[in-house]
Sequence to fold (323 residues):
Amino acid sequence: RASASDRDMPGRAVPMVHMGTPPDGPEPRHARWGTAALAQLGISVLVAGYTYLARPETWVADLIALGLVPVVAATLGMLVPALFLQWVVEQSWAQPYSISYVKGKQRTELAKQDQAKVPLFEQLAWSLYVTCGPPGILNGAVAALLLPFALTTPTSWTDLTPDSLGDALAQFVLLELIGDFWLYWGHRIQHDSQYLWKHYHSFHHSIGTPTPFSTIYIDPIDAALQAAIPIMLAALMVRPDVGILYIYIFLRVGENVVNHSGLEHPVLNFLTLKFLPGRASVNHHDYHHKYSNYSTNAKNYAEGFIFWDWAFGTLSKKSKQAQ
Fold:
């Protein structure tokens, strides 16, 4: 394991730390698919039943509008950009914009080392399992139970969005800021805690060179801490119109895919507004994967805005740009 002085020093012994499965990494998740899936589905049924007991008049509408549709939004937010960007990163014209930390090697070459252990199809299949399989269904059931305390379940298309564009933008910006704050802490706690790192978050870091398909190659507990819980907390605090929440979820997950693409392309940065002050670049998160493959004192936890890392002292002082 790299020393504290080496962990944030590009060009030293750290580069090989990230390759392959971490030495203290967890057992393969695939061996536990069946048991975990049944448990998650069983809990989902119990949560849905409690939703019926709490709100018998609206429980079906709550499950659809505040449970099912957010899961669909998250799935599409992952799948649509992942399919496109995975194709892009494999094109020769994209290589000059791809981040690589090994001189003389393209990112695609480095990614193939991981794909020899975890093929791309397996990365995508696991991402779909977490997003819309039993873990996603459980997250949706919990959201349908909790969100009606702060959000109004829509009864018509006019209930989906605010009356003014200004209100819609204000809601979206607040969701982005507050959601990224809670994501920061959901991410950081899994590095600060040896237990959470060893049993959950190191699984995601076992992919040394991130790809769009590996975005949600992540343990379901990790996904809950970094995505489901932050999104629900943001929604409970902001109390947005439901349509704005759908848009936020789709774009939040989509940006996560962009951050795992390794592409620093001006068009992509423009479309995702990463040129704005305070926004986290693709390099910001890629650097985290490269030089923070350990459980404590890691850097660059935030996904959307760098000022959370700056405010809490975890912003990397060194950063290596794409070759």
